[in-house]
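Worked Example 4.2. Consider the chain below.
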Amino acid sequence: MDEKKVVTPVQPYLRLDAEDYKEILNKRMGISSFYEFQVKDPEQSCFKAVPDGSTDLVFGIGEKDVKVLIGGTVLRAKNWDFDDGRYYFGARFLPGRCILPKDLSIQDVVNNDVEIDLNDYGAGLTDRIAEAEDVEQRAQILMSYFSENQKRSCRDGAHTLEEYMRQRIYATKGNITIGMLSRETGYSECYIRRIFKQIHGISPKEFERFIRFQAFLNEITAAPGETDSEETALNCGYYDQSHMLKDFRVFAGTTPEKYKKRICDGSARRADHTTINKQKENTHGIIKN
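Applying the procedure from the previous section yields the following structure tokens:
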């Protein structure tokens, strides 16, 4: 089955708060995006993570060593800690598409960040990532690795069933019941829940809540000054505004209005920072696009 519908997983606080943050959207081979940022100040090494149903593979590149971390979706707004003095490169997998090291299960990484061995994804891969010049090169290295990995792996009936369920959840904006999925697929509700949790580490019901939240988050992040929260909530699969507000407070750790204000303030700060940088570059005879 082709990946027809996707809600792009987003971690907005990382975008807002991380220094020198850059992101490359991907949508190939089960990877949503690649990103990079730096942590120079110990007081700016903690960000807030929000539920997205996805899994992140992160390389923390320091002067003397490299740390490799893999973390699954959080279950509510939660602190996301990083070591200062490192450059970070990450790959965010689409929900249900992550490739884990052999001895690690998805249940191990849900709501958790696990440090793994440097060679868990193959001898030399971490060194190549660390030695690459920029995020584009690192993304190409990982894409080549996962391309070869997917050629060697074969998808079984459980993954085919999960993919069907995931597509139906996307298509219905998180408003399809387990009973409906059971009737459509011919499998029992118990089996459906077990297969879904085996691949995602969370239940279908939890995933549906995360998908509605992420859809709403994408909308108000893209146009914080233009979106009407109530209308957007209905368009993203919520029954009403109170239904959305309850989830948003738990998952984002704030209200939609406060979040939208933060997005607007962050955009203004980035614009000021860009202007200042360009003025500095021009004084040194350097002009960058």
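Residues 272-289 have pLDDT under 50 and may be disordered. The chain has two domains: 12-152, 157-261. Compare this with Example 4.1 before moving on.
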